[in-house]
């Protein structure tokens, strides 16, 4: 019985199969080495650095007050550059990261210190900004202020990922400019100042919305710090008394649950509201449209039970059947529990607030401006047509005149403005000069014939024909 010998193809396949696990392990090893965050971590230096920035007293208080004033002015005058500068010098990140570190290493003392410092910082920030906005003569809400009154899902992501970047950068021995970048990205100062604006101007909706955004940023930065500290296995605080240790762990666990569970609820609620606002905006843009009617204002209010989309229309009145058709299409945009309110006609006057009144005034002014421009364009077009009709080809005209009157030496034409004090008119003037020694009577006859021919040829009802030598006399 003959023994089968392996072919070269079989040998190559076996070699490849044997090399595959080794190649796979090498790639996985390289990937782990590239993505590893434990190698460059220095827990001791990181803990000392965060603890050093937690305490909020002395210079830190005054730096925060000055930063609050700068940010408030930037929000007041709508200057993004000034707001960024205020965020760079703000010491708010220290206590917030201290909260996450305290939870991560089971340090109940650090956690209490961080909370106390954060409470003082928030109180100082609110009082300072409220004082500024109650005294400044510039009290109008600019776009930079309005942008900090309604949190959305992107704010949650920015705060969480910014917190991750901050603690990862802070855990390295070689410090970088990441932490200032995190302070700018997570935008802790603007919502705190906007909350002060709401308090200073007694606009409580602004105050609550902005402070809610500040809390979201603070909570998710703390949670990101807590997760990274646990992931990097920072050393936990040792207690000499086991009972005290159990009590501290119990407090920290309870606090972590109190912080994280509402944060998850806020996250889910923000996702739901963001999706609703996006659907409502898409619905208004794609469905709410009628010839002759213009949307001057749209207000969207989200609620867990019944949300509202209010639209103010100007111009041609929209029929009831069209509005019913709009309402019937709301389910296509997942707006089943949403009420559509369309305000138009006489209802606009009843529902008018300052914003709507301003928009209506702007709309009416724009309509009047358009009407004036249309009238002016029509007048200019008529004048242009008139000028085109009166435009004379002088070269052709002078040739024709010379053929009819060979004895003519020169022929001139010009236009002059004439006024009878009731209206202004443009009158064509013609001037002729004869070569021969014809008597005055014959020249007059020639000129009368030429004037009649010019009126007929050029379609003019008024012209002046003069003799060149008569003008000189």
Description:
- It is a single chain.
- The protein has 473 residues and is mainly α.
- The chain has four domains: 43-237, Glycerol uptake facilitator protein, CATH 1.20.1080; 288-354, Alpha-Beta Plaits (2-Layer Sandwich), CATH 3.30.70; 355-390; 392-472, Alpha-Beta Plaits.
- It is built from 18 helices and six strands.
- It has helices at residues 8-35, 43-54, 59-77, 80-89, 93-104, 108-135, 143-146, 153-170, 178-186, 189-200, 204-231, 242-286, 320-328, 346-350, 354-390, 394-404, 440-458, 468-472; strands at residues 293-301, 307-315, 338-343, 408-419, 424-434, 464-467.
- It has a three-stranded mixed beta sheet, with helices on one face. Strands 4-5-6 form a three-stranded mixed beta sheet.
- A hairpin with a 4-residue loop joins strand 4 and strand 5 (424-434).
- Helix 3 (59-77) packs across helix 10, helix 6 (108-135) packs across helix 10 and helix 10 (189-200) runs antiparallel to helix 11 (204-231).
- The relative contact order is 0.06.
């Amino acid at each position: 019985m003959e023994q089968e010998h392996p072919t070269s193809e079989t040998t190559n396949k076996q070699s490849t199969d044997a090399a595959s696990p080794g190649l796979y392990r090498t790639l996985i090893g390289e990937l782990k080495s590239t993505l590893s965050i434990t190698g460059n971590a220095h827990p001791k230096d990181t803990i000392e650095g965060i603890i050093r920035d937690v305490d909020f007293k002395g210079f830190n208080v005054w730096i925060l007050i000055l930063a609050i004033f700068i940010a408030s002015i930037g929000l007041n005058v709508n200057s993004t550059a000034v707001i960024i500068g205020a965020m760079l010098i703000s010491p708010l990140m220290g206590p917030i990261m201290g909260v996450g570190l305290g939870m991560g290493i089971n340090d109940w003392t650090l956690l209490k210190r961080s909370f106390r410092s954060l409470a003082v910082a928030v109180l100082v920030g609110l009082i300072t900004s409220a004082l500024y906005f109650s005294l400044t003569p510039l009290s109008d809400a600019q776009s930079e202020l309005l942008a900090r009154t309604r949190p959305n899902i992107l704010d949650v992501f920015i705060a969480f990922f910014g917190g991750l970047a901050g603690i990862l950068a802070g855990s390295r021995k070689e410090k970088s400019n990441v932490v200032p970048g995190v302070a700018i990205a997570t935008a802790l100062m603007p919502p705190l100042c906007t909350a002060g604006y709401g308090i200073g101007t007694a606009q409580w909706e602004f105050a609550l919305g902005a402070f809610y955004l500040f809390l979201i940023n603070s909570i998710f930065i703390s949670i990101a710090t807590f997760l990274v500290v646990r992931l990097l296995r920072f050393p936990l605080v040792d207690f000499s008394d086991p009972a005290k240790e159990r009590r501290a762990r119990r407090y920290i666990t309870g606090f972590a649950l109190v912080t994280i569970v509402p944060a998850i609820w806020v996250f889910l609620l923000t996702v739901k509201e963001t999706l609703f606002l996006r659907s409502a905006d898409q619905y208004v843009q794609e469905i709410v449209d009628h010839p002759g009617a213009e949307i001057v204002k749209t207000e969207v209010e989200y609620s867990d039970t019944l949300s509202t989309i209010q639209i103010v229309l100007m111009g041609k009145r929209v029929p009831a059947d069209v509005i019913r058709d709009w309402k019937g299409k709301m389910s296509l945009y997942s707006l089943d529990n949403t009420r559509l309110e369309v305000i138009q006609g006489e209802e606009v006057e009843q529902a008018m607030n300052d914003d709507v009144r301003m928009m209506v005034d702007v709309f009416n002014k724009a309509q009047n401006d358009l009407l004036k421009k249309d009238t002016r364009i029509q007048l200019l077009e008529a004048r242009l047509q008139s000028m085109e009709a009166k435009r004379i080809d002088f070269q052709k005209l002078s040739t024709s005149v010379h053929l009819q009157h060979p004895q003519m030496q020169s022929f001139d034409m010009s236009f002059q403005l004439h006024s009878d004090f009731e209206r202004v008119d443009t009158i064509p003037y013609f001037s002729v000069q004869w070569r021969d020694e014809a008597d005055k009577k014959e020249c007059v006859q020639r000129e009368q014939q030429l004037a009649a021919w010019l009126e007929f040829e050029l379609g003019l009802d008024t012209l002046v024909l003069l003799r060149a030598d008569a003008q000189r006399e």
